[in-house]
Amino acid sequence: MSMTWEELERLRPTDEWRYPLPPTCRKCAYNLTGLSEQRCPECGTPFTWREVRQRVRRIWGMTLRLRHANQDAMTGLIIALSSWFALGFAKLVGSTYLTGFVWILVMIAALMALVLGSQVLNVRRIPSWARSFMGDPPPNIALGLLTMFLALTLFFVPLILF
Ligand SMILES: [Zn+2]
After folding, report:
1. Centre of ligand 1 from the C-alpha of residue 70, in Å
2. Cα of 138 to ligand 1 centre, how many Å?
3. Is the pTM of this model over 0.85?
4. What is the pLDDT of residues 10-32, one digit of tens each?
C-alpha cells in the first residue's frame, strides 16, 4: 500500500514547524515546540503560531544573509585597497583628466565597500539564541570595521592628496 504526495500532504498537521530555527517566545526565547496552549510556560506571554512563524522566518532570513557577511567584507576590503592603488596611480601619472575619472570610480567603489563592510554589523539584529545558526565562522566584526574604515578614508584622503 502506498500513498500519493497529496494524501501525505493532507495528513501533515497544519501547524508543522518547517524552519531550522526553533519556535521561541518573543519575550524570554523559551522553546515553544509542541505546546498546545498558546501561552509561554516560562514567562506567561501569550502567543499565536502565526506571529511566532513570521518572526522566526524573518530571523532565519537574516542568519542566511549573514553567512555571506565575511565574504562581503573581504570583497569590500579588496575594492577599497584597489581604489587606493588607483588613486596612487592617478597621482603618479598626474593627468587631470585621469584623476577626475579615477575620482568618480573611487567614490562609487568607496560606497560599495562601505555597504559590503557593514553587513557584519547585522549580527546585532540576530537574537542570541539564534546566533549558533549563523554559520561557521561567525561574522568577523573587526574585518567589517576595517573595511568600513578604509572605505571612509577614500572619501577624505583624496581631498588632501590632490
Ligand atoms: Zn516566554
Report:
1. 33
2. 27
3. no
4. 555 556 788 899 999 999 999 99
